Structures are given as structure tokens and as C-alpha cells.
């Protein structure tokens, strides 16, 4: 889809994008070109993180937020739990985690620890 600045097209594109990210959605309505373009873009993003829909829908869905959490875990050197994720998802998560570990700075954890202690926040590792 060409870049458009029309408010209606943008709204329809974003609605389509959100539909593309939802693998449980069944489409039953007629969609505009903007909605279809958004849907395709959302589906591509979903499949980049979770694998092809034709291979089945995983128990746990990987979102941008979850990948950012794994990146941050890598940056602080935290252990991660990948139970319940598919092999495809674990490969994606590993790339983000590895990217975080490459940015790992031991002093950063000390700064976080000092901040948490100052505000009397207790971290529990279970």
C-alpha cells in the first residue's frame, strides 16, 4: 500500500493490522484496500515472531512487548524461562535475548539494584 495520510485509510489500515496479529480471528466482512494491506502487514509481523499460521497456533503468543522483555532480561543478565514456547519462537526470543546480552553491562545491574534498594523494592527470583 502506498503511504497515505488520509485519516480514514490510516484507521482502516491499523484495524487490519490488529486483525492480522490475531490468529484466532475469523474474517467475515468485506475489507477495504487499506484494511487488507494492514491485515497483511500484521500477519507478516505475527508470523515473523510465532511461525506460520498453517503450522498451528502456539500455546503462548510472542508479541513485541514480550521480545522487549527478553531483550531487557539479556541486558541485565537475568535467566529466562522459555517453557511453553515453540522451537520457532525460542529461536526468535534467543536473538532478542542475545542482543541484550551483547549490551550487558555489570554496572547497569548495580545501578538497578541500588535504585530498587533505595525505593525498598524487593526482587524475588523464583
Automatic annotation (TrEMBL):
<protein>
    <submittedName>
        <fullName>Uncharacterized protein</fullName>
    </submittedName>
</protein>
